[in-house]
Amino acid sequence: MSVNKPMDILNQARERRVLIRLRGNRRMRGILKNYDIHLNLTLEDAEEIASEGTTKLGDVIVRGDNVIMISPPPK
Amino acid sequence: MSVNKPMDILNQARERRVLIRLRGNRRMRGILKNYDIHLNLTLEDAEEIASEGTTKLGDVIVRGDNVIMISPPPK
Amino acid sequence: MSVNKPMDILNQARERRVLIRLRGNRRMRGILKNYDIHLNLTLEDAEEIASEGTTKLGDVIVRGDNVIMISPPPK
Amino acid sequence: MSVNKPMDILNQARERRVLIRLRGNRRMRGILKNYDIHLNLTLEDAEEIASEGTTKLGDVIVRGDNVIMISPPPK
Amino acid sequence: MSVNKPMDILNQARERRVLIRLRGNRRMRGILKNYDIHLNLTLEDAEEIASEGTTKLGDVIVRGDNVIMISPPPK
Amino acid sequence: MSVNKPMDILNQARERRVLIRLRGNRRMRGILKNYDIHLNLTLEDAEEIASEGTTKLGDVIVRGDNVIMISPPPK
Amino acid sequence: MSVNKPMDILNQARERRVLIRLRGNRRMRGILKNYDIHLNLTLEDAEEIASEGTTKLGDVIVRGDNVIMISPPPK
């Protein structure tokens, strides 16, 4: 098994804008402030992205077990 | 990994009104009194927000595994 | 994190009538006799509340992982 | 927290007929023979109750995580 | 709590034909060869029972968390 | 409880073609190379079986919590 | 039980393009950079595959409990 953990790329994504897909077809975007091993996340300046448009959420804490995937910004 | 935990922003949100999204498309608002690491929450003066209007709930304890996300009030 | 736990308000609600929302859109009311940290509950004189009316259940034990939220009676 | 556990009323319900609600809108009735802390149950002379009528099941072991609630018989 | 565990009746059901209900409305029948505390099961000469008829499965291992209930044969 | 574990029949099924039912009505077939106690599986020469036909998957690792049941080949 | 673990084939798949099936009928492809025992994955140059076409995702971290299966590339 790897010496690096899958979540290490999140450490490099801190203070940067990430894209998050949640169960139930939700998508969000926000600046990653904190995370833990359960993928509980704190986002700043978050917004929900829907086909009808985006909704401003401000600061938000996301419970990790709703997360499907997280995309850090391109390097 | 961070020295701060994602839930630290909840500590700053205590005694303030937070917005909560629950599974099953429920949304609630209330004054955050307490929380634990599972995101079990105690709210005061809570209300459920639906498209038909809001319903007063008073004090309420929310089981954490229903929580999708929590938004503290703007700083 | 708080010295008080979210479930402490349940202790004050013992022997009083609480309102419970369960997954699957069920709602119940009953006198809270006991609870544990999983939100397993014992209710006395319980009834299920549906749009068609209420159904008497008598004593009932509720498995905690079905619970969404519990409202103690107003103080 | 209480010195009594929510499941203590099950101990008093042993050898008596209980009503059980399971996920997926199933309802059962049977004589409670045994249980454990996960609400795994053994029932004797069990029957499933549906709107179309009841089905005899005889002895049955129910996996606890399907249980929503259990009603002991009136005292 | 009981000195007997709910699963003890499974021990008496070994080498005998049991009826199993699984999540997703599946029903199976087979000779119980082995089980563990998670209700992982090994069945011999198993068959799936559907409204359209039965399907022979031969030996089969069932993952316990799909099990709703198990009926041993009548005594 | 038994000295044999339900999963022991999987040990005898290694290097042989097994049939797997997954949640969401998926069925697969492949040569069982490895497994663990969570029923995480490695299959070789795997194929998905659907009513429309079979799809070649080659080597595949299956996460155990999607597994409903596994049928080893007839003895 | 085997001395090899099911996930060992993932170690050989590192830095190679894998195909992933997720719950909710999602499919993805990407270069496997890292994984852990929960099947949390880090992918590089990832893309989502849908019937309507593919969507570029770039780097992505996938939460393991959404994974159904992973196919390493043919040997």
**Average pLDDT level of chain A:** 90
Strand count, sense and barrel status of the largest sheet of chain A are:
5 strands, antiparallel
Oligomeric state as shown: homoheptamer
Integer-rounded radius of gyration of chain A: 12 Å
User: If strands are numbered along the chain, what order do they take across the biggest sheet of chain A?
Assistant: 4-3-2-1-5
Order of SSEs of chain A: HEEEEE
Q: Structural class given helices, strands, pairing of chain A?
A: mainly beta
Which consecutive residue ranges of chain A, at least 5 long each, have pLDDT under 50? none
**What percent of residues of chain A adopt helix (DSSP H or I)?**
under 10%
Write down the CATH topology of chain A.
Answer: SH3 type barrels
Strand content of chain A: over 45%
Helical stretch tally of chain A: 1
Largest interface chains and counts? B-C, 24 and 21 residues
Shape of chain A: globular
| CATH hierarchy, class of chain A | Mainly Beta
Number of strands of chain A: 5
* Second-tier CATH architecture of chain A: Roll
End-to-end distance of chain A: 25 Å
